[in-house]
Write a structure and sequence with these properties.
Elements (H helix, E strand, L loop, with lengths): L5 E9 L2 H10 L8 E2 L5 E6 L4 E6 L17 E8 L3 H10 L8 E9 L2 E10 L11 E6 L17 E11 L2 H12 L3 E4 L2 E5 L4 E6 L7 E9 L4 E3 L6
Parallel strand pairs: 1-4, 5-8, 9-12
Antiparallel strand pairs: 1-5, 2-3, 3-4, 6-7, 7-8, 9-13, 10-11, 11-12, 13-14
């Protein structure tokens, strides 16, 4: 089996999404229009060549409609891996004794050429997350043409691709091995760090003795000239 590709990284903005989104536009990113999911959350995307960063939240001054994100703090949040067949991924994870929920349909409307279209996704989520501290799920794009649209992939700052996601963990080997199993990839040790290499980026798991649970602590972006820099979450 081939390793799964990375799909998108979630930046949780809670009920401040509308307030904070302009900061990313000031940084030279082109954001997609505000969208409302059928589950009640809202988002805007930073669309890249094969991945995207999802700015996720819910309407200001309203309670969160999705229970699984209600207590998620602001900051880099979920790791979402791409599957070409959500049901097969569910079966694979079930066979590895992970606590997975049945495939769930996620939808959001968008306006395109004066008409309303529906972006549709099948997702596989966990009832118990396999790595404490990380929110992980899998996404099958049923309408990828409604996500990777050329006009949203042109950024004034030249942003092109996610190249690396950094995770801090008290037990990096265990976290790396679990991530490798989830993505059907391999975990390689490099000094005290571990790397899980996926088709379109790498996950770097660093040892951090004072981190009680694993945590996404950073992401690296390459621009169209090959310059790599850290993604600024604009929360400080």
């Amino acid at each position: 089996m081939q390793p799964l590709a990375f799909d998108h990284l979630v930046l949780m903005l809670r009920d401040r999404l509308t307030e904070l989104a302009p900061r990313f536009e000031q940084d030279g990113y082109t954001l997609t229009d505000l969208a409302i999911h059928n589950l009640g959350s809202i988002n805007r995307l930073i669309t890249l060549d094969s991945t995207y960063i999802e700015l996720l939240g819910w309407p200001e001054n309203k309670p969160p409609a999705r229970k699984e994100i209600a207590d998620v703090p602001q900051g880099l949040d979920a790791l979402v891996f791409r599957t070409e067949n959500a049901q097969q991924t569910f079966d694979y994870l079930k066979s590895r004794q992970f606590a997975v929920n049945p495939v769930q349909r996620l939808e959001r409307p968008l306006e395109l050429n004066g008409a309303t279209h529906m972006a549709r996704f099948d997702t596989v989520r966990f009832s118990v997350q396999p790595i404490a501290g990380l929110r992980i799920y899998f996404c099958q794009h049923l309408t990828p043409e409604h996500v990777w649209m050329e006009r949203f992939m042109r950024h004034d700052n030249g942003a092109k691709s996610l190249t690396e996601i950094v995770i801090d963990a008290h037990q990096p080997e265990s976290v790396a091995q679990t991530l490798a199993t989830l993505t059907m990839a391999s975990a390689d040790k490099n000094n005290n760090d571990y790397t899980v290499t996926l088709p379109n980026l790498s996950l770097r798991i660093r040892h951090n003795a004072v981190t009680p649970e694993a945590k996404v602590t950073g992401a690296l972006l390459a621009d169209n000239k090959g310059v790599v820099q850290r993604f600024d979450t604009r929360l400080s």
